[in-house]
Amino acid sequence: MNINKTVDQAVMNIALEGRLDTTTAPQLDAELKDLQGIQELVFDFEKLEYISSAGLRVLLAAQKVMNKQGSMVVRHANESIMEVFEVTGFIDILTVE
């Protein structure tokens, strides 16, 4: 998985490419360790092919942090990832555009 992270003042953009699974979730978790001062967290899933429960856990942890200090949004999720969000109830937890 490739992670392209950019920070512009209080906005962090993270574009993911490949698979977010048990093997790669720790990489994303490490990138999200320091969200101090971030008021808007934007995930771009345009090139993300797959997400597992390990990936969902990382997103949930990030959402909990951002609920206290700002907002988080997921953009460009494909059909299979949207289906995972719907089946798991994450569609009600996350802001998906």
Describe the protein.
The structure is a single chain. With 97 residues, this protein is α/β, with parallel strands linked by helices. The protein has a single domain, classed as STAS domain (Transcription Regulator spoIIAA). The chain has four helices and four strands. It has helices at 25-31, 53-69, 79-88, 90-93, and strands at residues 2-8, 11-20, 40-51, 71-75. Strands 1-2-3-4 form a four-stranded mixed sheet. Strand 1 (2-8) and strand 2 form a beta hairpin. The two termini are 22 Å apart.
List its salient traits:
single chain; 97 residues; alpha/beta; Transcription Regulator spoIIAA; four-stranded mixed β-sheet; 4 helices; 39% helix
Q: Which helices and strands appear, and what pairs or packs with what?
A:
Blueprint: E1 2-8, E2 11-20, H1 25-31, E3 40-51, H2 53-69, E4 71-75, H3 79-88, H4 90-93
Parallel strand pairs: 2-3, 3-4
Antiparallel strand pairs: 1-2
